[in-house]
Design goal:
methyltransferase, O-methyltransferase domain-containing protein, 14% strand, 10 strands, S-adenosylmethionine-dependent methyltransferase activity, WH_DNA-bd_sf, globular, Rossmann fold
Length: 358
């Protein structure tokens, strides 16, 4: 039997067909965040975890007091994305179980990233995105200010609930991802440090982990008064209220994580100069933890590389002049602040560790 040769699809046509498929990802890109938020609010993962074994749809809908048919559709969506998994139990009935992803979204899990997702998916943080194009055209106002009438820090100071949401989100990234990676991969950066001030340290979660790992360090958690007012007490950590734009408490070294990206170069240089004035001349250094943008797209060969670009867009929407920086841009800022040398150490996290020396 003779078969007619298959006609090859022209490359241009193939690319157009792929684009028609790909476009739906952008049209409905918000859906994944919304459904994951729904799962967190329903406490699906927490319910399965407390049950101690996979649960059937009937068990889950009863425990959650919700519609079984609607819950099934939510679970079908989440299973397709590897958040939760299906199993067949002994009675030959489909049951649902946790996955590493769903455990990262369970509120009762100490390693949960749910607080960060709840922050970014909150109405407060979503509203500025609708005003981003107006900022690009140069109307003067930042998207956050246009949406809420004040900047993100003033808004948090005036809204205790949102302030807690922000602090919880920052704490979870420190607790789950960044600080464990620092302690595991480059603990030597804390050698010889007797006192450490965490500049913009939030509620102290990050510094408490460092002090617990290195108990000889005296920790000073430094942030705005309204931020630390609700902070719990940690052994070896003193909470100090103030403004890093004015002055910073004295210490052997300064630690500043996920703070400088909120500011333009001029303000970063001012903050770093304040850090420089606060640290010991003999052993002083500033430990900066931030995401780094690759200089060229072809260098973006790690799975977390794209997250830095996403964070850069977040800075554009939520701050006046904040941005993520390349290593060259960090070099410029550090040189202008008066630091003679610096090192950059990548870690298994979104961030890298930058050590700036006197």
């Amino acid at each position: 039997m003779d078969f007619a040769p298959q006609k090859s699809i022209p490359k241009k046509q193939e690319e157009e067909e792929e684009a028609r498929v790909e476009i739906w990802k952008y049209i409905f890109g918000f859906v994944e965040m919304a459904i994951v938020k729904c799962a967190i609010e329903l406490r699906i993962g927490d319910t399965i975890e407390s049950h101690g074994s996979p649960m059937t749809l009937s068990q889950l809908s009863t425990a959650l007091n919700c519609s079984a048919s609607l819950l099934y559709r939510i679970l079908r969506f989440l299973v397709r994305r590897g958040i939760f998994k299906q199993e067949i139990n002994e009675a030959n009935v489909i049951s649902y179980d946790q996955t590493p992803l769903s455990r990262l979204l369970a509120s009762s899990n100490n390693n949960s990233m749910a607080p960060f997702l709840l922050l970014e998916s909150s109405p407060v943080m979503l509203a500025p995105w609708h005003r981003l194009s107006a900022r690009i055209k140069g109307n003067g106002e930042t998207p956050f200010e246009a949406a809420h009438g004040k900047d993100v820090w003033s808004f948090a100071a005036a809204d205790p609930i949102h302030n807690i949401v922000i602090n919880d989100a920052m704490s979870c990234t420190a607790r789950v991802l960044t600080v464990p990676a620092i302690l595991e991969e480059c603990p030597q950066i804390f050698e010889g440090i007797g006192s450490l001030v965490d500049v913009g340290g939030g509620n102290g979660t990050c510094l408490s982990m460092i002090v617990k790992a290195f108990p000889w360090i005296k920790g000073i958690n430094f942030d705005l008064p309204h931020v630390i007012s609700s902070s719990q007490q940690y052994i070896g950590v003193e909470h100090v209220g103030g403004n890093m734009l004015d002055s910073i408490p004295k210490a052997d070294a300064a630690f500043i994580m996920w703070v400088l990206h909120d500011w333009d170069d001029e303000t970063c240089i001012k903050i770093l100069k304040n850090c420089k004035g606060a640290i010991s001349e003999k052993r002083g250094k500033v430990i900066i933890v931030e995401a780094l943008i690759e200089e060229r797209s072809e260098e973006n060969n790690n799975k977390l590389g794209d997250v830095g670009l996403m964070l850069d867009m977040v800075m554009m929407a939520h701050t006046k002049n904040g941005k993520e920086r390349t290593s060259k841009e960090w070099g410029h800022v550090l040189h202008q602040a008066g630091f003679t040398q610096y090192t950059i150490t990548p870690i298994r996290a979104v961030h890298s560790v930058i050590q700036a020396f006197l």
